[in-house]
Amino acid sequence: MGAIQNLYRSHHQLTHGTLGLLFVTAFWHWADRMVANESFFVGPWKVLRTTISLFATGTIYPHLRTSGWEFLMGYGIAAMIGISLGMAFGMSKLVREFLDPWLGGLYATPTVALAPLIIIWFGIELTPKIIIVLLTAVIDIIINTYTGVINVGQEFRMLGMAFCVPKRQIWFKILLPGSLPYIVTGLRLATSRAIVGVVVAEYFGSSEGLGWLLFKALDTYNMPLMISCATLLAGTGIVLNQGILAVEKIMAPWRDTKLQE
Amino acid sequence: MQTRILVEEVGKTYVKPTGEVVHALSGVDMTLESGTFYSFVGPSGCGKTTLLHMLHGLLSPTEGQIFFNGQKVTGPTTNKALVFQQALLLPWRNVVDNIKFGLENDRTKSDEERRKICDRYIQIVGLRGFEGHYPHELSGGMQQRVNLARALAVNPEILLMDEPFGSLDAQTRQLMQEELQRMVDWKRSGKIVIFVTHDIEEAVFLADKVFVFSFRPGRIMKEIDIPFPTPRSLAIKEDPTFLKIKHEIWNLLAGEARKAMAE
Q: Does the distance separating the beta carbons of B136 and A165 come in below 8 Å?
């Protein structure tokens, strides 16, 4: 009994998260039983069976590969651009004042509105999709990075000056590590946004991918397949978020874990 | 060569973001000699921290000038080190790496030398066994030890301390005062030590000479030589001469402190 208690205590976040998912799934199952109409509502068992058969028959793999590639490219470039731009925003008041309205505006613009334009400009190959994912994800990274740089605080910059740290090294020794927690938060939020970006990009002119499969299922009124795709996307979001948190714990052991919770 | 600091008619006026003009400091003259511990004591807002930052070169005076060994102070240099009021330790660096922070900018030293120097100061400030700890795992007193070690590690000719014990509890503070004398060892190393505090007892206990500052604009009201030999034990705080000096300073400062409170 004690062992289980200890396990619970050390993994309470995981336990509670799993319980939360199970609880909602149970409710979903119950609702499915109540409705009992497959063309109108589909239960978790059916979705699970559909998902398993997607993997068993191998039909899902090309879609996963396509979407995964779009995600990786778009998100990767967004991370590089976002962190660099965020740093520039944080360092220079001038840059901030000039570009802040654009940042707010672009953040509020739904990608769905821009996607057709980007398709027209860049065709229907991989490039426009990467750009759409990039645009969806980059703003979160910029905003969080520059909030981080600003929050590192005047005192730490003064510390650098007092000990004659060369200007360029202040970046690497103070500003970058100091804003790391914020950058990680930006990267986390951006994963979810980038997944949405992938789906939006595939809605316009594509012939493969998880998002494409989802919309195809919608067109053919294949409810189990549609929910199955949505579940896969959601699952990816959860895994990526938790993955980034885990990487942060390894990379930044100095972060007070109590503060995170 | 005897190192010394000359402060000539130094004043500082600055404008707050609200547009209000503040005369922080005015007409300060002093000569500071090596191997001596100086305390600056005064009410809050008397410009003593401002003066400390000007001595370091982080701020420049608006009137007068400061010379160190005949050269005008125009900015921070590696022969001056600051111990901050808040420990200002980098949370992503452990104790050793925080102590190394200033040393890293000394290109003349090899990694091996830096490591040895850090190790020596870890011993001196009594942090053996805590080398790998991160700041959030340390008590306030220990954080200030790291803060001090970081400054000592660059082997500065001038050690500037800005109320380093201000945030410590009363008992820790007493013990740190006593220990600081051994840790800094200014007589042997020939350092100029300047210690800013608003605690009169602390100022008298530590210093060879106390400068008493008035309220804004800060001026030197009195220079007092403290006749006790160093290192001192906490017992001298009960000594009649000690108490007499303490009361003398308090009498000077009482009116000034009231002005500070009224603001």
A: no
Strand partners, B209: B38, B225
More confident residue, A241 or A91: A241
Question: pLDDT, tens digit, for every residue of A100-143?
Answer: 888 888 888 888 888 888 888 988 788 999 999 999 999 999 99
Low-confidence ranges of chain B (pLDDT < 70): 1-3
Instruction: Answer yes or no: do B91 and A254 touch at CB < 8 A.
Output: yes
Nearest to A188 by CA among A231, A249, A253, A232: A249
Checking if the pLDDT of A256 tops 60, the result is no
Other C-beta atoms closer than 10 Å to the C-beta of B7 total 21
Domain A44-259 annotated CATH 3.40.50.1820: no
- The DSSP secondary-structure symbol of A171 reads I
Q: Which residues of A touch B154 (CB under 8 A)?
A: 163
Domain locations in chain A? 1-37, 44-259
H or E segment and range at residue B83: strand B80-83
Task: Please tell me chain B's helix, strand, coil percentages from 3-state DSSP, rounded to the nearest 5.
Answer: 40, 25, 35
Q: Tens of pLDDT along B149-181?
A: 999 999 899 999 999 888 888 888 888 898 888
Nearest-neighbour CA in chain A from B81: distance (Å) = 7
Model's pTM, two decimal places? 0.76
Please judge whether A254 and B86 are an interchain contact, meaning their C-beta atoms are less than 8 angstroms apart: no
Q: Which long-range contacts (CB under 8 A, 24 or more apart) does A158-161 make?
A: A158/B58, A159/B84, A159/B88, A159/B90, A159/B101, A161/B58, A161/B76
A174 lies within 8 A of chain B by CB? yes
DSSP string, B128-196: TT-TT--GGGS-HHHHHHHHHHHHHHT--SEEEEESTTTTS-HHHHHHHHHHHHHHH-HHHHT-EEEEE
Contact present, B163 and B197 (Cβ < 8 Å): yes
Q: Residues B247, B252, B254, CA angle at the centre, nearest 5°?
A: 85
Cβ distance A254 to B92 less than 8 Å, yes or no, reads yes
ipTM summary value: 0.84
- The DSSP 8-state label assigned to residue B215 in this structure reads S
Asked if residue B73 lies in contact with residue B67, where contact means CB atoms within 8 angstroms, the answer is: yes
Write out chain B residues lying below 8 Å of A148, CB-based: none
User: pLDDT tens digits, residue range A195-253?
Assistant: 999 999 998 878 899 999 999 999 998 888 999 999 999 999 999 998 998 888 887 76
How far does Cα A6 stand from its chain's mean position? 32
**CB neighbour burial string for A169-205, b if at least 16 within 10 angstroms, e if fewer:** ebbebbbbbbbbbbbbbbbbbbbbbbbbbbbbbbbbb
